[in-house]
Design brief:
single chain, 433 residues, alpha+beta, Alpha-Beta Plaits, Chitinase A, domain 3, 5-stranded antiparallel β-sheet, 4-stranded antiparallel β-sheet, 13 helices, 11 strands
């Protein structure tokens, strides 16, 4: 095989390939076996017609397309490997010569992984972080738990307030005509939750149990019903009951009810420890995100659109999988959110481009610093996964090997080592000031 390439623009190269007549002859043989098994020739059973008779009757040219389909994919793969190219999209192939007794000649326009010109990535300034937990943070967590364990008590007198749960009947009208889905009875609505159309909940504040009211609102332009988008609607409301949260007292009894501790002080100590652990983890994630973002911003790279599109597709699949684990599917999500596939993918595009850029830059830094996960580190990760999923290490390794993702796992570990390298070589902004 002869393979050469030349850069034509940005991240595209023109690959020129030539394979000898012997490879063409082999592909024609395979094509004949495939085609002859399906062709009926008088006097011969299917698959038994001699090659010479087949070619005399149908012409050797009848085998060309099948032979090309057999030979071209393997020839292209060999060529990109020989030329040390890294395609990121399907090639545009032009077969220039293919005939019995001749060489195969073709060109391919290939979009390749872009080159990264690294900027400064050592000594990145990061904000000073603190893992200390304040008394205010502990109190805020206690109040959150206090609210979670509050009881709803029916308010006998007085108007509804923001934060109350109201039990209402409602029916909506647009231009005096009721619309589908706009009616309910004894519906529980927490005022201030933002779960209804903007402006709806606010107009129930001040209404007392037993009172009725007409509430006028305008549906948002991005509402999920085409018939109601931007339309003004009037809802006839009857308020039946008002329920207000009654918070439990923050004392030792509260601690016993919601935790394994006997006193409120012991519970506070545990909260402080958990908040500190959470803050340390959050600080580390923020630090890693900062060094990666700044290293990526300092680099120069032109990202092919195909790489962004591929990342969007992967993000879309991951999102669908997460929905499935939550007992939903994409159809249900679209109906609930008022979005569609095109809108969702458009929203993912910016993050996809950032992910691709970050990964390309991290890969380039890893190569520049000769960072690579070792087999020992790979084994340690497999052991960790085996422990997490209560499987043997051999089972976990077999699963990755069967899926062809063992190298990908090692690649992820290399990326993590590269991020650790950036963190280790960063410096606090406070120390620079």
């Amino acid at each position: 095989m002869k393979a050469s390439w030349e850069k034509i623009e940005k991240n595209q190269v023109k690959l020129t390939v030539e394979l000898g007549p012997d490879r063409v002859a082999d592909a024609l043989d395979k094509a004949f076996k495939k085609v002859s098994a399906k062709v009926a020739v008088p006097g011969f059973r299917k698959g038994k017609v001699p090659r010479a008779i087949f070619e005399r009757k149908f012409g050797v040219e009848s085998l060309y397309q099948d032979a090309i389909d057999i030979l071209l994919p393997e020839a292209y793969l060999e060529a990109v490997q020989q030329a040390d190219l890294f395609p990121v999209d399907r090639p545009e192939v032009d077969v220039q010569q293919f005939a019995k007794g001749q060489a195969l000649q073709f060109t391919a326009i290939v979009t390749v992984k872009p080159e990264v010109q690294l900027g400064e990535y050592k000594g990145i300034e990061v904000p000073e972080q603190s893992g200390d937990v304040t008394a205010e943070e502990i109190q805020a967590e206690l109040e959150r738990l206090q609210t979670r364990h509050a009881e709803l008590i029916v308010v006998e007198e007085g108007p509804a307030q923001n934060g109350d749960t109201t039990v209402i009947d409602f029916e909506g009208f647009v231009e005096g005509v009721p619309f589908e889905g706009g009616k309910a009875e004894k519906y529980s609505l927490e005022l201030g939750s933002g779960s209804f159309i903007p402006g709806f909940e606010e107009q129930l504040v001040g209404l007392a149990a037993g009172e009725e009211k007409d509430v006028t609102v305008t549906f948002p332009e991005n509402y999920n019903s085409e018939e109601l988008k931007g339309k003004e609607a009037v809802f006839k409301i009857k308020l039946h009951d008002i329920k207000r949260k009654q918070l439990p007292v923050l004392d030792d009894e509260f601690a016993k009810d919601v935790s394994e501790f006997d006193t409120l002080d012991e519970f506070k100590e545990d909260i402080a420890k958990r908040l500190q652990d959470r803050k340390v983890k959050s600080n580390q994630q923020e630090l890693e995100s900062t060094v990666v973002e700044k290293a990526a911003e300092a680099a120069e790279v032109e990202i092919p659109q195909s790489m962004v599109d591929s990342e969007v597709e992967q993000m879309y699949k991951d999102f669908a999988n997460r929905l499935q684990m939550q007992g939903m599917n994409l159809e249900m999500y679209f109906q609930f959110s008022g979005q569609d596939e095109q809108t969702l993918k458009a929203q993912m595009k910016s993050d996809a481009e950032k992910r691709v850029r970050n990964n390309l830059v991290l890969e380039a830094i890893g190569k520049a610093e000769s960072i690579e996960a070792t087999d020992e580190e790979l084994n340690e990760e497999l052991e960790r996964l085996a422990s997490q999923y209560s499987r043997s290490v051999d089972e976990i390794r077999s699963i990755f090997a069967a899926n062809g993702t063992l190298d990908s796992l090692k690649g992820e570990l290399t990326v993590k080592k590269t991020v650790d390298f950036l963190v280790a070589n960063s410096k606090s902004a406070a120390s620079v000031a």
